[in-house]
Amino acid sequence: MFMNKANISRIKYFLISGIDLGSGEPEWVVSKERRKWDEIFLSLGPSKGRIMGSVAKKEMIKSRLPNPVLAKVWRLADVDGDGALDSDEFALAMHLINVKLDGFDLPDDLPGHLIPPSKKRAIANGRNGSASASGSDGDSY
Question: What is the per-residue DSSP string for 11-76?
Fold first, then answer.
């Protein structure tokens, strides 16, 4: 097989899995299933482009993962720590749930390659570099 960038990318996709899937790739790995996550997000009736924890929880519990795992998913996915999920953060939460359902452990801290592109600049500028398990509005997971 001829080894060019496209072939190397395909090989890496099959060798890297779990939380490391998408590491080193130019496209945000969560985008691969984005259409599905966006449809679910919109069906939850976001207000001002966000859903609160109580709304997200109704979707997240369908995974049948234990509450402590779902709380960790929330903490990792609420990248800006505002106690709500926008469409990028919701898609990330769904991706993390699938990683766990596939039998992989979730990290304690969100790897850089999983930070939504829309959040990278704010984090790099230090505006909000840590996700919080509860937001300022008290309605987090």
Answer: HHHHH--GGGTTTT-SS-GGGGGHHHHHHHHHHT--BTTEEEHHHHHHHHGGG---HHHHHHHHHH
The first and second tokens of residue 95, run together, are: 């991706």
Structural domain boundaries of the chain? 5-124
Number of residues written out for the chain: 141
- Is the domain spanning 5-124 CATH 1.10.10.10? The answer is no
pLDDT in tens, 36-68: 999 999 999 999 999 999 999 999 999 999 999
Q: Distance between CA atoms of 71 and 85, rounded to whole angstroms?
A: 13
Confidence of residue 141 (pLDDT cuts 50, 70, 90): low
Per-residue DSSP letter, 126: T
